[in-house]
Amino acid sequence: MFARSCDRAASLRGGGGRGRSTRYCVARSDVEGISAVVHLAAVFCTADKDLIWRSNVEGTRNLIAAVKAHGQGARFIMASTGLIYDTDTPRPGREDDACTPTLDYPASKLVAENQLRNSGLNWSIQRFGFVYGDRDGHIESLPPLMARAKLHPAQRMSMVHHHDIATAMNLALTGAMDGRIVNIADEAPTSIYELVELVGGSIEPSGEPLVNPWHIHMDGALARRLGFQPTVRTVYQSAQEDLL
Q1: Which of 17, 47, 129, 237 has the most crowded Cβ, counting Cβ within 10 A?
Q2: Contacts made by residues 172-176, CB under 8 angstroms, sequence distance 24+
């Protein structure tokens, strides 16, 4: 999304110019006169590794170059992922942790993050928990994802509802996150088993020990200090308000 004034950027759930994740060239007209870029585009759920890297790295590189050339002064806010943190982290992932992701999606997002951090632009990066809500089917897709990733049903994940992607981005548009990487998550990391049960699904339970208890669990303290307050605090609130 490209915002051309502070007023037009005030609500991400409204308008603004939009780009496409599969378009790797950015036109001058896309970025001239903008005040902010909200870079949400990414490719994740595909076996096409080349597409993941081209979209997430080449696409970001081209967007950065276009903003540097024709959108001087624009704030550049980029979405990233909590999957970047190491599987065997000894505590919830923190923004200043060293990260060595091995899967293509988080590895490509880390490269894109570093491109932006070294760009000289006014940047901020938001690492999202598991994004869900508004009947997007993400929670329903967990059983096959869990099997492929060999995740324990007791694994607790940091979560964030679509509504609070907008909450976080609107906060970043004020400048509160400038020059920072910030974890964005709700107030209650939830187990995969509970999530699947919540949407009427089923997975095989397990009493085996959980080997990496902090995997896909992020520390959200920095976001709270910067003023982030999720409007959907837990997946149970989401269910009660028919926002799943």
Answers
A1: 129
A2: 172/75, 172/77, 172/124, 172/126, 173/3, 173/6, 173/9, 173/10, 173/12, 173/36, 173/38, 173/75, 173/77, 175/75, 176/226, 176/227
Looking at domain 2-240, its CATH architecture is 3-Layer(aba) Sandwich (3.40)
Instruction: State pTM to two decimals.
Output: 0.90
Domain locations along the chain: 2-240
